[in-house]
Design brief:
Layout: H1 2-26, H2 37-41, E1 43-47, E2 62-66, E3 80-84, E4 92-100, E5 104-108, E6 111-114, E7 117-118, H3 132-135, E8 137-141, E9 146-150, H4 160-163, E10 166-167, E11 171-180
Antiparallel strand pairs: 1-2, 2-11, 3-4, 3-11, 4-9, 5-6, 5-8, 6-7, 9-10
């Protein structure tokens, strides 16, 4: 009985990986609002083509995005999400949620404050946030039904500081796992 379960698990895993690769090869950057893949499987694979989320997600890594994560709730602060890029709806972006609609955000000396409370950022490497635009930002209030997002590699990320907020309806899903990396120790790791 245990041998049969092990075989089934191996077959299921192989099938899932094969389907993910096939879906990715067919159209890796399709916007899921027009693409039924996420509705069928609940997970969409993406390949990260930049360093703007390092060290959480590295350039060239493949991630899985849960399209079911926000069916009954909204993204939380520090969630890593994939969304439709507001200036160009044909592109998907990945960033970290820092503030939500109605909240006030400011950056002072590299520290991020939401509603005057310091946000813990254990993922942030100080050397990646030294430029003036990463160190200070005047307080602003986020419009309702919107999100303020930042890349973890602050000095190398164009995000809400540059192009504004993300409408909540643009959210595709929550980044869950790294399903492939050149660094094999990162495969299967949760994205926090």
């Amino acid at each position: 009985m245990k041998a049969r379960r092990s075989k089934l698990l191996v077959y299921f895993s192989a099938l899932f990986i094969a389907l993910s690769v096939a879906i990715y090869i067919i159209n890796p950057f399709a916007v899921p609002s027009k693409d039924p893949r996420g509705r069928v499987f609940g997970l969409i694979p993406y390949r990260i083509p930049t360093v703007n989320m390092a060290p959480s997600i590295l350039n060239g890594e493949f991630i899985l995005v849960s399209t079911f994560s926000y069916l009954s709730n909204t993204p939380a602060i520090n969630d890593v999400i994939v969304f439709i890029y507001p200036p160009d709806p044909t592109i998907s972006y990945v960033k970290r949620v820092i503030a939500r609609g109605g909240e006030k955000i400011k950056i002072t000396s590299g520290k991020v404050y939401v509603n005057n409370e310091l946000i813990e950022q254990p993922y942030l490497i100080e050397e990646n946030a030294r430029n003036s635009y990463s160190q200070n930002m005047p307080e602003q209030t986020i419009p309702e039904d919107s999100l303020f997002v930042l890349g973890d590699n602050r000095d190398n990320s164009k995000d809400s500081r540059v192009w504004g907020v993300v409408p909540i309806e643009n959210v595709i899903g929550k980044v869950t796992y790294i399903w492939y990396s050149d660094d094999y120790s990162r495969i299967g790791g949760l994205v926090h």
